[in-house]
Amino acid sequence: MGPMNIFNSIRQLSLGHLKPMEGAVKSYKRLGRGPASKGGKSGRGQKGQKARGSVPRLFEGGQTPMWKKLPIIGFKRPHARVYNEIKLEKIQDFWNNGRIPLKEGDTLSIGKMKRYGIVSGTIKDGVKILSNGKENFKVPLNIEASKASIPAIRTINKNGFKYTSVYHSKLGLTAHINPNRFYLKKGYLPLQARPTHKRDIKYYSNPLKKGYLLEDRSILLDRLENYQVKREVPKSSLDLQLEQASTKKFNDYHQTKVINMSDL
Predict the structure, then answer these.
(1) What are the pLDDT digits (tens) for 104-137?
(2) Is residue 30 part of a domain?
(3) Name one GO biological process term (predicted).
(4) Structural domain of residue 184, as residue ranges?
(5) Residue at 13 is within a domain
């Protein structure tokens, strides 16, 4: 290969000689510019929906389309809570680097996670602890979060420390993360609301989930477990008359009084 051939081959690799692959680009055909380029109807034929416009996608000529014949499977809760997921390995990494200024045995809550940077961004409904990195987790702290997986709870308890699932409402979570906002604006901190939904009450009173409601059983209203609701059936007018007649007393004698015929 001569020098000129090498030079020409190098020139073909320059940016100025880039071009698409053969067949990758299709030239546009101008329609409606005379008989030579389908100038009459532009290749659409005469009249009709296809000549004037276009047929919607997935349209099957008026019959029930396939996407309507298939059943709807599953359900997505429109008000499902969204939790920020935190892995155990991230908490361990922060502890190893000295980014958690707590003493051994202290409690790592959601507010402290946000303050120390373990949770970044906006916390919408709470924090959930995941068990990723549980093999090397040795953080000597008690942890409070909205939820946690069963392996994560077992790992924390295995180290000799306590995990607690705590419920926070929208207002309560804001007050827990940023209490100064309420102290400066209103002068007081709103009380933490208790769960009202049956699903939340069941979760935060579950021993497997280490719910905080187990510490105060009075708010669970255990006394109502054996309570039976009695249905009150309205009495008819005849029943009321019979009830009054059975308890009615006369002035001259009682209904249970024995009367001798000689006394009459």
Answers:
(1) 999 999 999 999 999 999 999 999 999 999 999 9
(2) no
(3) translation
(4) 79-221
(5) no
Both tokens of 196, joined, read: 């009202």
Residues 167-173: contacts with CB within 8 Å, 24+ apart? 167/192, 167/193, 167/194, 167/195, 167/200, 167/204, 167/212, 168/110, 168/126, 168/192, 169/193, 170/125, 173/110, 173/123, 173/125, 173/126
Model's pTM, two decimal places? 0.61
Q: How far apart are CA 124 and CA 145, in angstroms?
A: 13
Structural domain includes residue 6: no
**Residue 148 in domain:** yes
Q: What distance in Å separates the CA atoms of residue 146 and residue 123, rounded to the nearest whole number?
A: 11
CATH number at residue 158: 3.100.10.10
List all residues 6 or more positions away from 121 whose beta carbon is below 8 Å from its beta carbon.
Answer: 84
And the tokens for 211? 């719910």
Enumerate residues 6+ apart whose C-beta is below 8 A from 41.
51
pLDDT of 260: 67
- Counting the structural domains of the chain, the total is 1
- Say which residue the tokens 């290749």 belong to: 43
